[in-house]
Amino acid sequence: MPVEEVARRKEELYLESLPSLKAVPEVLEHINMQYGRIPLAVVSGSTRESVRASLRSLQLLDKFETLVCAGDYKEGKPDPEAFLIAAARLNVKPPSCLVFEDGELGIVAAKGGEL
Fold first, then answer.
1. How many domains does the chain have?
2. pLDDT digits (tens, 9 = 90+) for 41-82
3. Can you give the residue range of the structural domain that contains 26?
4. Which residue among 5, 15, 29, 73 sits deepest, i.e. has the most Cβ atoms within 10 Å of its Cβ?
């Protein structure tokens, strides 16, 4: 099976599963407490379409000033590039950023960018 077809099907299955998507309660609490007080961003290795659909499903899309998604950067995690782009778009110094990450490569990327 061609790689493009597998990727397309994976995305379809993910989008179909969105009604059962649940936010991490502690992260959701932080978003709701800080929305409007500090700038918020999402950094993801997923497509912009997938990220927007996920946030829309959770009713969070309007809470983020910027989304940094696959295609917005050249080097993926563990390279800090995507986090540094988010910080720059938010006009925030990287050491001032708080990162919530769900994967080890993302944690390495956040630390590598002094986030």
1. 1
2. 999 999 999 999 999 999 999 999 999 999 999 999 999 999
3. 3-112
4. 73
